[in-house]
Design goal:
By secondary structure, this protein is mainly beta. The protein has one domain: L,D-transpeptidase catalytic domain-like. Strands 3-2-1-10-5-6-7-9 form an eight-stranded mixed β-sheet, with helices on one face. A two-stranded parallel ribbon has the order 4-8. This is L,D-transpeptidase.
């Protein structure tokens, strides 16, 4: 059984890491804008890449939905807003911490 799982709560703009159904970490996020909503459903982390370049900040965690991921940002003031093209943005320090904690294969539930 996997040690961790992630729940993204779009209504609260928060990402939670759970271990044995108990929240062990919570982070503020940015999510998709009205026209480019973040998809909801059940996904998993398929890859991890440090320093992906471009607007993706310090780390990229790719999701099983192609072209979507959890990543850092080069615009930290966007955190707490609905401004992305559908991805989950995090502060760079937070996404680096998350990347160290969770392995590829971690379950990600995104809900409204």
């Amino acid at each position: 059984m996997p040690r961790y799982r992630i729940i993204v709560d779009l209504s609260a703009l928060r990402l939670y890491v759970l271990e044995a159904n108990k929240v062990v970490k919570g982070y503020p996020i940015a999510a998709g804008a009205i026209l480019t909503r973040t998809p909801t459903g059940q996904f998993y982390v398929v890859n991890k890449a440090p320093n992906p370049g471009g607007p993706f900040g310090a780390y990229w965690l790719g999701l099983s939905k192609p072209h979507y991921g959890i990543h850092g940002t080069n615009n930290e003031s966007s955190i707490g807003k609905r401004v992305s093209h559908g991805c989950i943005r995090m502060h760079n320090a937070d996404v680096k911490e998350l990347a160290k904690l969770i392995p590829v294969g971690t379950s990600v539930t995104i809900r409204r």
